[in-house]
Amino acid sequence: AQKITQTQPGMFVQEKEAVTLDCTYDTSDQSYGLFWYKQPSSGEMIFLIYQGSYDEQNATEGRYSLNFQKARKSANLVISASQLGDSAMYFCAMRGTLAAGNKLTFGGGTRVLVKP
Amino acid sequence: DTAVSQTPKYLVTQMGNDKSIKCEQNLGHDTMYWYKQDSKKFLKIMFSYNNKELIINETVPNRFSPKSPDKAHLNLHINSLELGDSAVYFCASSGNTQYFGPGTRLTVL
């Protein structure tokens, strides 16, 4: 069974500073994918970034980067130069195997509040 | 262009009623899903369909019945609604990346 753990229920970050959101995972699969989603107060789930288990380079998308440490089974999200609009819930998720329907297993989320 | 759309966005109904939520994707994906987000924001898979065939049914009560008329649509019908069904329901579709619809907030009174 797959498991995702986000140990930070909530955190404050000063505008323009960087913030790291922790995510650890557990799986017996050799091939898997890791995702981060943002859920603002309006409720939609916004895809941010993806890392494949065989990708050698850490994924980056604009101000988002994923610090992938396979041996430690961690996939932390780094948001650089935080903006007020980054205030939201952030979810880490793992994609299972094709046989399991490629379903996503989610962590409990981290609520981020950016202070001006 | 909306990639994954759901209707309605809000649904308020009485216990015991039957309701449906519709979902459509225009991404050309073969796989679609329903997820439930509870009041504590925890997201959990309910169903997965691949090319109109049910792949995953995660021990969801049989009051919940998904239907996929074609691979671009996955609807969710709920019979005999209970208070505990109140939640946000998300439809999603996936190729390499999984994209979510805007969610349907269901409130059962």
Report a brief summary of the structure.
Chain A has strands spanning 3-5, 10-14, 19-21, 24-26, 33-39, 46-52, 60-61, 64-69, 74-79, 88-95, 104-106, 110-115. Chain A has 116 residues and is an all-beta fold. The N and C termini of chain B lie far apart (34 Å).
Which helices and strands appear, and what pairs or packs with what?
The complex is a heterodimer of chains A (116) and B (109).
Chain A: E1 3-5, E2 10-14, E3 19-21, E4 24-26, E5 33-39, E6 46-52, E7 60-61, E8 64-69, E9 74-79, E10 88-95, E11 104-106, E12 110-115
Parallel strand pairs in A: 2-12
Antiparallel strand pairs in A: 1-4, 3-9, 5-6, 5-10, 7-8, 8-9, 10-11, 10-12
Chain B: E1 4-7, E2 10-13, E3 19-25, E4 31-37, E5 43-50, E6 53-57, E7 64-70, E8 73-78, E9 87-94, E10 98-100, E11 104-108
Main sheet overview of chain B: 7 strands, mixed
Find the structural class of chain A using helix and strand composition.
mainly beta
DSSP helix count of chain B? 0
Structural class of chain B: mainly beta
Strand content of chain A: over 45%
Low-confidence region ranges of chain B: none
Name the average pLDDT of chain A: 94
CA(first)-CA(last) distance of chain A: 41 Å
Largest interface in this structure: A-B, 21 and 26 residues
**Largest pleated sheet of chain A:** 6 strands, mixed
Instruction: Estimate the helix proportion of chain A, in percent.
Output: under 10%
Shape type of chain B: globular
Name the helicity range of chain B: under 10%
Order of helices and strands of chain B: EEEEEEEEEEE
3D architecture notes:
The complex is a heterodimer of chains A (116) and B (109). Chain A contains no helices and twelve strands. The termini of chain A are far apart. In chain A, strands 2, 5, 6, 10, 11 and 12 form a six-stranded mixed beta sheet that branches. In chain A, strands 3-9-8-7 form a four-stranded antiparallel beta sheet, with no helix packed on it. Chain A has a two-stranded antiparallel ribbon with strand order 1-4. In chain A, strand 8 and strand 9 (74-79) form a beta hairpin. By secondary structure, chain A is an all-beta fold. Chain A has strands spanning 3-5, 10-14, 19-21, 24-26, 33-39, 46-52, 60-61, 64-69, 74-79, 88-95, 104-106, 110-115. The mean pLDDT of chain A is 94. With 109 residues, chain B is mostly beta strands. Chain B has strands at residues 4-7, 10-13, 19-25, 31-37, 43-50, 53-57, 64-70, 73-78, 87-94, 98-100, 104-108. In chain B, the strands form two sheets. In chain B, strands 2, 4, 5, 6, 9, 10 and 11 form a seven-stranded mixed beta sheet that branches. In chain B, strands 1-3-8-7 form a four-stranded antiparallel beta sheet, with no helix packed on it. Chain B contains no helices and eleven strands. The radius of gyration of chain B is 13 Å and the shape is globular. The chains are: A mainly beta (116), B mainly beta (109).
